[in-house]
């Protein structure tokens, strides 16, 4: 069953006529994602891989009814406006693929979404996928097979590697969610874990963290406070990163002694969460079949 996304989710693509939007629209359609329409201002009446193009989200809602989710491939300069447009037209799940959005703009639309009861995945995310159901993002679908392990990750490439390792051991994925690589994200580990906790198809959770920030430490404290919990195995990227060095993206930086590998590992292990040294250890530590 998974969380947030299924084959019945009605999706729109904002920025559908752009190079990235068009390319990934095709892949999402081929995977079975139910894409109703897309937007690209000034290009109403066109189609992209059979998907009708509109100028605005409001026009789509008027012609097609309620929309469940939007995925945004709009350039960084205009992406915040696209997010607000989706929220104001009743879309309850907004996946922001765009990277390079200014931090102050991210703070504003993430807070606005929370006030409106809208879930933001991202920004700067590879998206999410419920294997065998639907894909809303840029993840390579062939590495994910359906199963009972939920994956929540701050890293893109590592997520795919972990999925391959799970498959080698006969384990599949219920839903995989990329939180996003920026310092500000719409979801955090705690919120996604709670969703997985309430999903009967998810038997265990893999948490893929990385250096920078305190998201893993905050999750550790929360997890330790729970009386009933599903098993979690963690992997932290950036073990050898020096302080002050950005590794990969804006969210992965150790600053003023906060967010380094030892502190994250210590917090997770003290909460009873095993930390894998390599992705190949994760299936063994999960201990499920």
UniProtKB/TrEMBL annotation:
Organism classification: Archaea, Thermoproteota, Thermoprotei, Desulfurococcales, Desulfurococcaceae
Functional pathway: Carbohydrate metabolism; tricarboxylic acid cycle; succinate from succinyl-CoA (ligase route): step 1/1
EC number(s) on file: 6.2.1.5
Membrane-spanning residues: none
BP terms from Gene Ontology: tricarboxylic acid cycle
Binding locations of substrate: 160
Protein name from the UniProt record: Succinate--CoA ligase [ADP-forming] subunit alpha
CoA-binding domain segment(s): 4-101
Biological role: Succinyl-CoA synthetase functions in the citric acid cycle (TCA), coupling the hydrolysis of succinyl-CoA to the synthesis of either ATP or GTP and thus represents the only step of substrate-level phosphorylation in the TCA. The alpha subunit of the enzyme binds the substrates coenzyme A and phosphate, while succinate binding and nucleotide specificity is provided by the beta subunit.
Keyword annotations from UniProtKB, A to Z: Ligase, Nucleotide-binding, Tricarboxylic acid cycle
């Amino acid at each position: 069953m998974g969380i947030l996304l299924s084959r019945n989710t009605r999706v729109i693509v904002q920025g559908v006529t752009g190079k990235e939007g068009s390319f990934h629209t095709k892949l999402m359609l081929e995977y079975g994602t139910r894409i109703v329409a897309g937007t690209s201002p000034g290009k109403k009446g066109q189609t992209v891989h059979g998907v009708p193009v509109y100028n605005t989200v409001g026009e789509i809602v008027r012609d097609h009814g309620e929309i469940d989710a939007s995925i945004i491939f709009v350039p960084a300069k205009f992406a915040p406006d696209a997010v607000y447009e989706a929220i104001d037209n009743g879309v309850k799940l907004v996946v922001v693929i765009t990277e390079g959005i200014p931090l102050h703009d991210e703070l504003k639309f993430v807070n606005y979404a929370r006030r409106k009861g809208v879930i933001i995945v991202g920004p700067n995310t590879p998206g999410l996928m419920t294997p065998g159901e639907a894909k809303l993002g840029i993840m390579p679908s062939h590495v994910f097979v359906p199963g009972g392990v939920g994956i929540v990750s701050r890293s893109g490439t590592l997520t795919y590697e972990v999925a391959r390792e799970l498959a080698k051991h006969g384990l599949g994925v219920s839903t995989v969610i990329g939180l996003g690589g920026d310092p500000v994200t719409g979801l955090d580990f705690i919120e996604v874990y709670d969703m997985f906790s309430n999903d009967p198809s998810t038997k265990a959770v893999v948490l893929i963290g990385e250096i920078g920030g305190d998201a893993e430490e905050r999750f550790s404290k929360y997890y330790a406070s729970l009386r009933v919990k599903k098993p979690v195995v963690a992997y932290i990227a950036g073990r050898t990163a020096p302080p002050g060095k950005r590794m990969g993206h804006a969210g992965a930086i150790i600053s003023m002694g906060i967010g380094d590998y030892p502190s994250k590992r210590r917090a997770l292990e003290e909460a009873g969460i095993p930390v894998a040294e390599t992705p190949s250890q994760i299936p063994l530590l999960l201990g499920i079949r």
